[in-house]
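Quick one, tokens below. Sequence please?
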């Protein structure tokens, strides 16, 4: 791995039409950042041209860190350009973090980073364009995508996401916790293969410490209780979020739906109640009609419940989850009451730096709802995971 002295000024000044390899940037000031791989440096002129001056018609979506545009590079290659908003919480540090983390990683279930552009205060990330939008918009969103998610497709999506996370958790060195697994960060390619997006919140596990959390980020509803309450981050926080996602994929509904009766609003509670009354089938997405394997669907729901167990220790690792999904290992029947969103909602924890949480945009309830209240969280903490 080459360690490059990274400088905004030096990047900015190499804004020639041709993209340049970041490893060619040798000088100056800003930060030491380890970079390998072929992260390209794009000029802002090049990206303006690719997006027709960032015209609104080319906007793919907007998240909490800024807007994402479809761009066409000179060779006709399509890319997704994430323009980080200037008031974004994602500052230079996070930007460089995102860059260094993902530049090194290639897996068929992870979105590929092509490069970046820094133009004065403006920062942009250039990703591989993923054709079929996110699960939040297609499977769970209100807008009709026209995509039909048959049972096999759903199982394959779950397995793909599990494989991608297994790669981050167990095969990449240092290991990576994604920290923001949710439906809007699962993109689908033209064959509906899942690609995990957004490593901006991911952190390396440094040295012999298995995790460090300096601030909590994420979306309420996917957050593991121990992470939400104490800021304790381990790979098991991703396992929890994955469990929520798995339940969403099987049920075809979002983790929280404020339009439903109060006792129906929270998917996790609903699934647990049905598990207790031995009626898990009734949560399976009705639009599937009879196009599913009941036993397999029950198995997936149980795996989802295992992933969202209150205690991180008893949640399975992602590689075990992947094996269970593929039917390569048994699914334990020792399932206890999960850590539930409503437990977290009652929290009043003092903190140095409160963090505002929001539901995913498509499901945000009216401002009067208690769900949009600010949850003040504990500051950073370090917990050593047993190997
Ligand atoms: N590589 C990509 N290819 C195609 N579309 C993308 C790509 N990256 C993002 N998008 C689209 O842009 C939208 C906005 O993405 P972004 O990551 O900024 O926000 P988000 O994931 O929806 O929310 P949040 O900021 O809370 O994570 C996505 O929902 C997706 O539809
Ligand atoms: Mg995203």
């Amino acid at each position: 791995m080459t360690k490059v002295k990274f400088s905004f000024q030096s990047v900015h000044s190499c804004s020639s039409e041709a993209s340049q390899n970041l490893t060619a940037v040798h000088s100056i000031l800003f930060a030491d950042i380890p970079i390998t791989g072929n992260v390209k440096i794009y000029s802002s002129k090049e990206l303006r041209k690719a997006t027709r001056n960032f015209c609104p018609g080319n906007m793919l979506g907007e998240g909490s860190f800024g807007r994402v545009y479809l761009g066409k590079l000179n060779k006709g290659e399509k890319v997704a350009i994430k323009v980080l908003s200037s008031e974004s919480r994602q500052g230079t540090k996070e930007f460089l973090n995102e860059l260094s983390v993902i530049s090194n990683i290639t897996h068929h279930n992870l979105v590929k980073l092509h490069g970046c552009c820094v133009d004065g205060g403006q920062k942009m990330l250039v990703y591989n364009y993923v054709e079929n939008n996110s699960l939040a918009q297609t499977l769970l969103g209100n807008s009709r995508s026209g995509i039909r998610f048959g049972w096999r497709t759903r199982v394959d999506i779950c397995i793909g996401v599990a494989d991608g996370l297994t790669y981050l958790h167990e095969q990449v060195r240092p290991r990576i916790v994604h920290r923001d697994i949710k439906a809007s960060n699962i993109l689908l390619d033209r064959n509906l293969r899942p690609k995990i997006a957004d490593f901006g919140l991911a952190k390396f596990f440094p040295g012999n410490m298995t995790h460090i959390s300096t601030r909590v980020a994420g979306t309420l509803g996917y957050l593991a209780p121990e992470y939400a309450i104490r800021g304790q981050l381990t790979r098991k926080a991703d396992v929890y979020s994955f469990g929520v996602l798995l339940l969403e994929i099987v049920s075809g509904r979002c983790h929280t739906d404020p339009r439903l009766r109060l006792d129906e609003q929270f998917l996790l509670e609903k699934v647990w109640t049905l598990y207790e009354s031995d009626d898990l089938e009734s949560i399976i997405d009705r639009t599937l009609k009879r196009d599913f394997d009941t036993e397999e669907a029950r198995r997936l729901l149980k795996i989802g419940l295992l992933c969202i167990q209150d205690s991180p220790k008893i949640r399975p690792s992602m590689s075990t989850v992947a094996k269970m999904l593929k039917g390569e290992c048994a699914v334990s029947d020792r399932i206890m009451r999960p850590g539930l969103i409503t437990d977290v909602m009652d929290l009043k924890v003092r903190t140095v730096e409160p963090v505002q949480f929001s539901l995913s945009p498509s499901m945000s309830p009216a401002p009067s709802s208690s769900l949009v209240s600010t949850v003040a969280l504990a500051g950073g903490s370090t917990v050593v995971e047993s190997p």
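The longest strand covers residues 66-72. Residues 60-65, 68, 80, 82, 111, 127-130, 133-134, 137, 180, 184-185, 187, 197-198 surround adenosine-5'-triphosphate (ligand 1) (CB under 6 Å).
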